[in-house]
Amino acid sequence: MKKTILDLSKLVPGMILAETVLSARKQVILEKDTELTSHLINLLRKWKITSVCVLASHTTRPPSYHDVMFPSLVSGYSNKLEDKYHKISITAGSIFEYMRDQEQLPFDTLRQLAFHDLYNFIDDNTTLTFLYQAKPPLEYTYLHAVDVGIITGLIARWCGFKEKTVQSLILAGLMHDIGKSQIPRSILDKPGQPTVEEKAILKLHPIYGYYMVKSLNHIPSAIQYAILQHHERENGSGYPGGLPSHKIHPFAKIIAIADTYDAMTSNRVYRHSITPFAALEIMANEIFIHFDRDYCKLFIRNAISALTGSTVLLSDETQAEVLHFGSFMSIKPAVRRLDGTLLDLNNSDISIVEVVKFA
């Protein structure tokens, strides 16, 4: 198969490496046949790689919008999980644009999307890791809404909630940011940190969303409060009400976990994402401050289970397999390098910089 050398600026998710990429110290960064994602392209940039060799068959046409969002569609194959995510994202995008343009809330359509499409999506045990792989180069508000709906559903299922409660939580997660449809695009899409005034406007979105659903009498109060309170925090430091733990609705507490995790592991216009390992470590450190302890423990426990067996790139430019996590409060695992040596990251200044391949 033909190969071609491309500058880093010309790489798009879905391209396949035709040759192994080495660092300046001749360490393996990415192996041959690795499929590039937006995260891995950012990784190459951090390592100051200027060009790579890719399979020419994957560079014959410029990528479309959906090619960039769904990299394996570029590389000529798809699976059931990606097809479902593709269709859901298109539908969600249409709904959110409709809310902005028409200033109406199509609740029945959102409920159908949550109760059927997103609900069926949480049956797959690879969902959490898939969502990280499927991240587009930039965050899109409606994709974040889809992801939060799915992650919220996963947490609800791990909690053992009844089917109707799981579906309601998925709907609440999908709708948690509908108030952003009332925020000017110039603020949402700004390619830099928002100003103090812009942050104040952004913090109004839970209130906007709450009044959008409150005007419809048939929307359950649990969903209304989930939208209003998903930025409240256990120690009272959240917004818009600065509420203490006992006044925050359980739906909002679960969505806060899903929202925070997805936001940290998504690329934004003003910053790059962090790895699931880094995000979970931050959440574990804040579990007694910002998040409901029981829900957050449950989420972290299931998330680290999904990450076990992954191949990761370490800060010393070596690759390793994630073997196990020593304890709940530490998200730093024991790993095995490709040469067979074992390393406990709890007792080392070496860290995980990117996930190369999930188990």
UniProtKB/TrEMBL annotation:
Domain HD-GYP, chain residue ranges per copy: 119-315
Record SMART domains: HDc (SM00471)
Coiled-coil parts of chain: none
SUPFAM superfamilies attached to this UniProt entry: HD-domain/PDEase-like
Species of origin: Sporomusa acidovorans (strain ATCC 49682 / DSM 3132 / Mol)
InterPro entries in UniProt: HD/PDEase_dom, HD_GYP_dom
Protein's name according to its UniProt entry: HD-GYP domain-containing protein
Cited PANTHER family: CYCLIC DI-GMP PHOSPHODIESTERASE PA4108, CYCLIC DI-GMP PHOSPHODIESTERASE PA4108-RELATED
